[in-house]
Amino acid sequence: MSDVVFTTTTTTTTTTTLAPTWDLVEATIAENFVRYLDSLGNLPGGQIILRYIKSSYKNDPIRSLFELALFIFALNYFLSSKKKENKSELVKFSQREIDELCDEWVPEPLIKELSDLEKWQMYSIPTIEGHNGSHVTINNKKVVNLASSDFLNLNESESVKEAAKSTISNTGVGACGPPNFYGTQDVHVRLEEDIAKYLDGENSILYGQDFVTAGSVIPAFLKRGDLCVVDSGVNFAIQKALIVSRCNIEWYDHNDMDHLEEILTEIKPVMDKQRPIRRRFIVTEGLFANSGDVVNLPRIIELKNKFKYRLFLDETLSIGVLGATGKGVVEHYGVPREEISITIGSMAMSFASSGGFCVGANPMVLHQRIQSIAYVFSASLPPYAAKVASQAIKEITSNLNADGSSVIVSQLQKKVTFAYEKLVSLSKSSKFFEVASGPHSPIIHLALNTQYREELNLPTLYGSPVFLSTGKPSKFLNEFDDYYNIESFLLQKVIDYVLDHSSTLISRSKLILEHENLPVLAPRLQIYINNGVTTEELSRLVQILPIAFNEVLKNVDSELKLISLNSEIGNYKPHYINY
């Protein structure tokens, strides 16, 4: 019992002894600190510091001292060297040793080296000598050019050439800066007005490169949490633009309106509950670059109005091609431009120029001028390119038929119909090819016959099977595919045969499978119809194509023979390439 009392007493005594000691220390520190602070008032500006301490910290010297210590620590931290090296461990090399190390250094390649099965792709590209138009020279041989996207053949128009020459004489060849700084000239303003008027839009905005137009417009309006319902057949530029925006993406089957309505119906309850309300877009093309068919625009407009979505439309290929005056898929269906929130397109196709554009309401265009990355940071469109595009629009709209349709657009549409109907008729009796595009596309797609593909065990789509099973793109890029490579090689041999026997240059789809997250269509031959060729030249092509397919594919009648072509691919060197 006495032990317990002693311990308690001792503890109490210790506590009461320490308390006055700490109070004494604190009082001493405070007294000395206050004295030093008072002396600070004698320095210039010292009274301001003292007044700040008293008003902000209630004249608390301990708190002020602690803050002073933190300030000194921070000052020392930021002013001192971030990396203190031990100089004794540094090795000094002689000049000879430095030279030897430089000689031994082998840098990593910027791109992966091409394999023997990929090099043929590079060899297959012909070199055009001189002027590029509807008729070109390849290896000193005059050929018909059906591989050019200058559908209206305005590249050979004398008035267009003169517009380019006069502008270059006055302004040079570059705008020398982004549009918002000193890159905008009078020709850019006039072109924006011309495009807006031509396409029945309130306003328009120009981009220096057509490929980056989608990649700048979409991220300017969409961010995380926003939703895009996208056609799975859209082009590569739109796919990458959607990835950059980081919005949520729902894919619907290519041009399948029933599937689109099904998706919109399923996600409607979720979207209606979101607060704040997120932006919602349907994204599609007017004339699909990968497949050559036209979007069902009236049905999409009906669905976007029903479910309250905005519509983003890429008219890169349809401008100058569809409609009585070439105003695109909107004119083709007789739909008001106001139904489309955002329309983008390229001036490198029917306008025989370069760069891209976006058309829409005034607020949408003005927002891009301060928010769109390619507009703010990239160089403006060269002035002569802007003048050429304005002149191209003038050529389209000034020469009209009695019914109000454009003369040159009507000429193109007649030639497209002529070639399309001839090829469809021939494909019915051919074992090897079929027409895969729609009747309105100036790029006629020819694919290997479906039954023939089944005999060779070739798939309809190449690439990631993840999308086919889940409807979502793979997180990884597609891998190299032997069948895709061989099929492309067979089509290249058809191209070479046509070039040799009819002096006509055609092309093929050149998607790089390894760059795609989505599955891609099987390779196709592509015939680019333009106003510079005659119906006789198109007839000559139509006659030679079945022969070319037969000569190239007559011995390829099994999957085994298909695979054996790998040995031939490694030795491919066409005669029109100079080595």
UniProtKB/TrEMBL annotation:
Pathway: Sphingolipid metabolism; Lipid metabolism; sphingolipid metabolism. One of its GO terms (cellular component) is membrane. It comes from the Eukaryota. Its cofactor is pyridoxal 5'-phosphate. Residues 141-423 form the Aminotransferase class I/classII large domain. Keywords: Acyltransferase, Lipid metabolism, Pyridoxal phosphate, Sphingolipid metabolism, Transferase. SUPFAM superfamilies: PLP-dependent transferases (SSF53383). GO terms for biological process: ceramide biosynthetic process; sphingosine biosynthetic process. Its EC number is 2.3.1.50. GO terms for molecular function: pyridoxal phosphate binding; serine C-palmitoyltransferase activity. Belongs to the class-II pyridoxal-phosphate-dependent aminotransferase family. This is serine C-palmitoyltransferase. It comes from Scheffersomyces stipitis (strain ATCC 58785 / CBS 6054 / NBRC 10063 / NRRL Y-11545). The gene is LCB1.
